[in-house]
Amino acid sequence: MIGTVRQKAQIGLYSASLFLATVAVVCRFWSRKITGTKWQLNDYFMLLAYLSVLGLSIAANLAVTQGELGVHVSDIPKRLLPKIIPYNLKMMIVIPFFLVCSSFLVKMSITHFYIILFPNTWIQRICRVQLYLLLGCCIGGIVSCFLMCRPLAYTWNKSIPGGKCFDIKDFWLGISIVGLFFDLSLVILPIPVFWNLRMSWRKKAKLILLFGLGLFICIFSALRVYYDERMNFKDLTWTAAPAVMCTVPEPSLSVVAGCLPITVPLFTRASTAVKSSIMSRSRTILTGSRANGTDRRKSLPPNETNNFQRLHDHLYPMTAIVVSRGSMDRGAGGADETERAGPPVGRRNFASFSGIRVLSEVHVDSEVYEDLGR
Question: Is the CB of residue 259 less than 8 Å from the CB of residue 46?
Fold first, then answer.
C-alpha cells in the first residue's frame, strides 16, 4: 500500500536511480562494441555492481510496498504490525547486503580502470593496494551482514532464547564512513595527473569534472551517515526511510560516474552523426531553394555602390607574373624552365603539376615601377 508522500517519493527515486544506472551500463558495453575493445576486469566488476543495484532497488521498493516503509508505526493497523515489523527487520539484512556489494564493486571497477589508464605511475601503485583493500572490505561487509545477530533469525524474531545482536546502527555507520573514504580517494587521485597535462585549462577542467563526479556522490554518503544516526527502531518504518532514500541513489549514481569515461567514444560518434545530419539537411534545403529560384542573396543598395572608385591603369598597371618550376622539373629529370603566365591583364595560366607537393617561385617585374618613379 502506497499512501504517504514519502512513499511515493521513494518509488519515484528508486525507479529513476535504476533507470539511470541501466542506461549507463548499456551505453558502456555499446561503446565497447563499437570501438572493438575486449571486456576488461573493470567491465565485469561493473556488471556485477549493476546487478547488485538492481537487487537493491527491488528490495527497497518491496520495503515500501510490502513493509510500509515511509509510514509511522502508529499509523499502521495493529493487526498488521506482527507482519510488518519482522518484514522490515529482514530488510535490514537484505538492503545492507546489496549496498555493500554494489558500492564496493563499483569502486573496484573504477580503481581497476585507473590501473589501466595510468600505467607505470604512482597512481597505479596506489590503486593496486586500494583494489585489495576494497576486496577485503567487500568480503568483510558481506560476512558482517549475516553475523549481525546470532542466530540470524534473532534479527527479526526476538523471542529466540540466547540470541544477541551487535549494534546495527554502528554497522551502517562503519559501512558509510569506509565508502565515503574510498569515494574521496577516487575523486582526488587523478586530479594531479590531469592538471599536469599539456593542454588548455578548459580541457583540464572537463577531465577533472568528468572523473570528479564522485564528489557529488559523496553528498549521499554523508547524508546516509546523518540519517543512520537518527534512526529510531521504535518508529522504524518512518525513520529508516530517509536512510534508504540515500542508500539506493548512491551506488546507482556511482555506476553512472564509473561508466561515463568509457562512453565518451559513443557520445562522440553520436554527436558527429547528428552534426552530419543537420549539415546534410541544410544542403538539401539550400539546393532546393536554388533550383526553385528562391535563393535570395544580399546585394548592396544602389547608394552603396557609389562608394567604390575605379583605379586608372596608367597609375596601377598590371604586370606580368613569371612562374619558375625548375626545382619540380629537375626532380623529374627535366631542365629548368621559365614560362610567362600570359599578357599583363590579370589572366594567370599557372602550369598544373601532378604529385603531392608543388613548389613555385613568383617574380614581379619592377621595371615599370622604376620608370614610373623617374
Answer: yes
- Of residues 290, 353, 301, the one with CA closest to residue 323: 353
3-state secondary structure of 196: coil
Q: Which long-range contacts (CB under 8 A, 24 or more apart) does 208-212 make?
A: 210/260, 210/261, 211/187, 211/261, 212/187
Q: Which of 100, 85, 173, 170 is nearest to 136 (CA)?
A: 100
The DSSP annotation for 306-333 comes to GG--PPPTTTS----EEEE-HHHHHHTT
Band the pLDDT of 55: cuts 50, 70, 90. Answer: very high
Q: Which grid coordinates are listed for 339? A: 614560362
Q: What H or E segment, with its residue span, contains residue 29?
A: helix 5-35
Q: What class does CATH assign to 5-265?
A: mainly alpha
Domain ranges of the chain: 5-265, 314-365
Contact 70, 64 (CB under 8 A): yes
- Which string of DSSP letters, residue by residue, matches 331-349? HTT----EEE--STTT---
Cα-based distances in Å from 289 to 197, 235, 279, 286, 295: 48, 72, 15, 5, 5
User: 233 Cβ partners below 8 Å, 6+ apart?
Assistant: none
Categorize the per-residue pLDDT at 309 as very low, low, confident or very high, splitting at 50, 70 and 90: low
Give the pairing type, strands 361-364 and 321-324: antiparallel
Query: What are the grid coordinates assigned to 300, written together?
Result: 548592396
Q: Residues 46, 272, 201, CA angle at the centre, nearest 5°?
A: 75
Mean pLDDT lowest among 19-23, 50-54, 119-123, 171-175: 171-175
